[in-house]
Specification:
With 127 residues, this protein is α+β, with helices and mostly antiparallel strands. The protein is built from two helices and six strands. Helix 1 packs across helix 2. The termini are close together. The relative contact order is 0.23.
């Protein structure tokens, strides 16, 4: 199955830049944190069929203020829901929200952060 985190992070980097918000999109929290960034992490999911996967992804948005973090999370949320199609050579059948945006200040730095969760239905390859 394709690496859904890699597909989504690559897509979001490009989509955010096109939206005028060139924010770093990562799969791991950087040692030196930028003031604003987005993290995509696979936290589970299920194989949908022999050739498709439905990974559950947690998506977190950090920013300088609570309002800025909320705005960034909402923009990322809209972009993720616009993702179905072919992305990085991978067919994305659909996106389903499984947890709406929630206030989740970073417990290590108290940096403002919002998070939400989605399932992304992607096509793999028959082995």
């Amino acid at each position: 199955m394709p690496d859904a985190v890699a597909v989504v992070t690559t897509y979001l980097r490009s989509a955010l830049a096109a939206a005028g918000e060139p924010v770093p999109v990562v799969s791991r929290i950087p040692a030196t944190r930028p003031p604003r960034f987005v993290r995509v992490e696979r936290v589970g999911g299920t194989r949908q069929t022999v050739v498709s996967d439905r990974p559950r992804l947690d998506i977190h948005a950090w920013a300088e203020t609570e309002a800025a973090a909320a705005d960034l999370a909402e923009l990322v949320r809209a972009l993720v829901h616009a993702m179905p199609g072919v992305r990085e050579g991978v067919t994305v059948y659909g996106v389903r929200e499984v947890g709406g945006p929630m206030w989740l200040p970073d417990d290590q730095t108290t940096t403002p952060r919002y998070a939400f969760a989605v399932e992304v239905h992607v096509r793999g390859r028959l082995i």
